[in-house]
Amino acid sequence: MSQINQISTTLKSLLKQHQLTYKEVAHKLSMSEANIKRIFSTNNFTLERLEEICDLLQMNLSDLFLITEQHTEKLTQLTEEQELQLLADPKLLLVAVCVRDAWTFEELIEHYDIDQFECTRLLAKLDKLNIISLLPNNYYKLLVAQDFRWIPKGPLERFMEQEVMVKFMAPKKDEKWNFRLYIRGRYSQSSIDIIERKLNQLTKEASELNQEDASLPLSKRQHMGILMAMRPWEPSLFEKMRRQ
Prior knowledge:
Among the domains are: 68 residues, lambda repressor-like DNA-binding domains (434 Repressor (Amino-terminal Domain), Orthogonal Bundle); 63 residues. Helix content is 55%, strand content 2%. Strands 1-2 form a two-stranded antiparallel ribbon.
């Protein structure tokens, strides 16, 4: 990612946390909303424009550049100790999931049974775990990449397999599937490689869309679960009918 793209990503995150929409930024800068959207979509920032936006965020350009520089490289995998500490405290795990989706401090305490003091404590613990960098007034910078992966066979993966995936595949009454498809076949290794590459690309695109949508208010976003998996497998029903 280029430096200007990194700066743009940092700005979007900070605007979200300050609850400033493109429309409000446009009004404060005496510009049209379309112009502001175009600036962010093309990353066509002048220094003067960056400075004006920083003023709205009550920071200067050096603050913006420092935050961007410090947190350009993001974690793509947690350590086993980090995963264990998250699992040891359900509320800490909840807040960790929410900050990955760019929830604000206000949204967390409004939506979940967490008071201001406890939420501040949980954010501070995530900062200590190097999952976020806690900024003044309970703003934060996420240090975990959108497409980070669990440790193979590690604590979080075992938790997901035992507690999440089983329940995900058994929806509650009246819960609908937006999309569900199971396919099987016998493939050559070259075809398997192609399928894996396409699945990895889809994972990356879904992560990027989640990051882009982080600038929208919580009321315009909904929780979605996406489960993708592929492995050598034959249904046990068929397995029993194999010729011995």
